[in-house]
Task: inverse folding
């Protein structure tokens, strides 16, 4: 479904991503884990068209999307939930969700809006509330709901548990599993390695822009170096 081949990303003279290759197969949850500065978000931004790679190829559903602009990538049903949520604080909850469907021309937008409200009942209760007044957990749900309104086949989730209480972290990860069960493939960037590996099918471990370990999530979780560095 998604294949990243020898990706290199620079910020000026800083070589942030160094020949990274990985793939995500349809139906999977694939986790990218690593410390701050490892390059996880840079990879997500490159895949979603927000950062242009120096070299390498990113293909989605067999099409080279390396040089496509972000809005054209979204139109191909690949959506990102960014780190820090990035909701439209001065718009209502419902306006934010409808913004997620801005490229759609089909007649099922209202139907999908109701599906999002079924998945996130708290958003329905607050549909006319300004998004900036929501709690952190509610804003994360809104960011996820907004992305789902684009009807993605692949959902990129960047640090969905950041800043949330342990109870809300568990709830968000349960939601990620349910989204995947409903047929959406997930690429998950997450500092909470234990939680990420507990729901992922496969995982890649990044360190200073390089993939240092990869494999089935259970095998990665049992890797002694990974356990010492990231799992405690």
Result:
């Amino acid at each position: 479904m998604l294949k990243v081949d020898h990706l290199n990303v620079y910020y000026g003279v800083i070589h942030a991503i160094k020949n990274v290759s990985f793939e995500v197969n349809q139906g999977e949850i694939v986790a990218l884990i690593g410390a701050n500065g490892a390059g996880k978000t840079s990879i997500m931004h490159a895949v979603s068209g927000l950062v242009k790679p120096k070299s390498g190829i990113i293909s989605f559903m067999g099409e080279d999307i390396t040089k496509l602009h972000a809005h054209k990538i979204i139109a191909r049903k690949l959506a990102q939930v960014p780190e820090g949520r990035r909701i439209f604080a001065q718009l209502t909850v419902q306006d934010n969700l409808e913004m997620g469907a801005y490229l759609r021309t089909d007649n099922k937008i209202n139907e999908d809006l109701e599906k999002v409200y079924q998945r996130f009942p708290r958003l329905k209760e607050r549909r006319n509330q300004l998004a900036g007044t929501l709690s952190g957990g509610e804003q994360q749900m809104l960011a996820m709901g907004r992305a789902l309104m684009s009807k993605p086949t692949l959902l990129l989730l960047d640090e969905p548990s950041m800043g949330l209480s342990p109870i809300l972290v568990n709830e968000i990860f349960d939601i990620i599993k349910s989204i995947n069960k409903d047929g959406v493939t997930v690429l998950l960037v997450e500092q909470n390695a234990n939680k990420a590996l507990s729901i992922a099918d496969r995982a890649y471990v990044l360190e200073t822009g390089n993939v240092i370990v990869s494999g089935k999530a259970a095998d990665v979780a049992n890797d002694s170096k990974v356990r010492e560095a990231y799992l405690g």
